[in-house]
Input
Amino acid sequence: MSLPQAAEQALAAFSAASGWEARARLLMQWGERLEPLTAGQCCEQNLVSGCESQVWLLAEQHQQHWQFRAASEARLLRGLLAVLLARVNGLSNAELAKVDLLDWFTQLGLARQLSPSRSNGLQAVLRRMQALTQ
Amino acid sequence: MLFILERSTRIAMPLHSPWRSDFPALAAFASEGQTYLDSAATAQKPQAMIAALSDYYQGGAANVHRAQHLPGERATRAFERVREQLASWLNAASCEQIIFTRGSTEAVNLLAYGLEQEFQAGDEIVISALEHHANLLPWQQLAQRRGLKLVVLPLDASGDIDLTTAQQLIGPRCRLLAISQLSNVLGRWLPLTELLALAKSQGALTVVDGAQGAVHSQPDMQALGCDFYLFSSHKLYGPDGVGVLYGRTEALQRLRPWQFGGEMVQTCDYQQASFRPAPLGFEAGTPPIAAVLGLGASLGYLRSLDAIAVAAHEAALHRQLFSGLQARSGIQLLGTPEVALACFTVAGVHHSDLAQLLTEQGIAVRAGQHCAMPLLASLGVSGALRVSLGLYNDGQDLAQFFSALDQALELLQ
Output
């Protein structure tokens, strides 16, 4: 399965980043690319529970293809959301089910962000994404 | 002249902890590039405690208070010696006033269930606005079960209990005051003398949560004069899974058993049972034997240290932490911490972003709400970073922290 174009870009950028500072800068740059949600979309219904910082996640399906949108008040988490969405946006249900997100974050050098002790909420976002697409 | 020179040289040197090498974890952390500044969450353990755990298992485990055999007798004696050690450390009148629990949280729950029959609908339980969830939720839930009013003592601008308001709020319907000794968020001592006097003047029971306080000042039950005092072993350089509840003898007599089973029973048939008095009547099931022995070893280790030197070292570390945070622009301290820890936020920086970049640099601090959601909400912050100190920390740890903080803020600000 070939990667979506945005995912190819993320992989190229993060593979070239060496060290935590470079990765942090990249995450913040990617976070800036997230299309902002309206105040109305940042509502209780879209709020992902279980996150230390507030995260909102929306999912829409256009002709069998998923389109997610997300926002967070924390900048690095916005970056993590951006590279997550780069990997999953535009996929069909069948494709989405096959994506190994731990592998994706590992490829980006961000696997530690998914560890269960992390309270950044990325795990909760993934659970919410699964729930929304089932 | 020589003396002055020596002194100034010493001051210029980074703070050194002579006890650091007693804690094997510190060397292990150093070898993986980790700087541990989260002792208010749980403390590292001295070699003496690790050896005690190992010795107990190597020498042969046995259950306590049950068996006639030699291993059982040996375990029981060792277990009860720790109770005596604790009574002496706490300056309690008798070791029968010392109950082993699984931790501070369980100790508060024991009280909230064991004292339930003391309350009538409309009675009041008074806590403070800075309580840890462990000293809030058991009382909140008791209040809901019994139709009681949970009264919350507010804080003033510096993070201290407003005593004038407290005087009005601790009224004739107050049946119990449950209060921390030292805040796990604000790092300030509470005015226990005044608050306990107010509660006693209304005939209320008094509970002091010493989870943080016991670590930084040896508690004295006779001087404090509260009905109940509790703390956790794991924050006091001991094993996890064990806590201590002290009770004044008259107060313990008002406590009903809350968990049943094991050797807490005196007589038992299928339909009826009678129960032992404190302490065993409140220690249902097999207690955490190894952990209790480990706590005894930690306590023995702590008592072998020069308490004045330890306090001076902790104070010097705290001054460095406090002044370092104050010197940096954009940093907002939560209250004015006096000892042990400091919580802070940074203007325009989300605490989870800062926590992530400190983690990247091997700095182990706590980020979030510190099990005190209502307090953080009332301070108007969604979360904060907490740096907390143990007696093994040194100036180098703080230097690492500040360098990592500066690097992280350079990226984030």
About this structure: The first strand of chain B starts at residue 35 and ends at 36. The first helix of chain B runs from residue 2 to 12. Chain B touches chain A at residues 350-353, 356-357, 360-361, 367-368, 382-383, 407, 411-412 (CB under 8 Å).
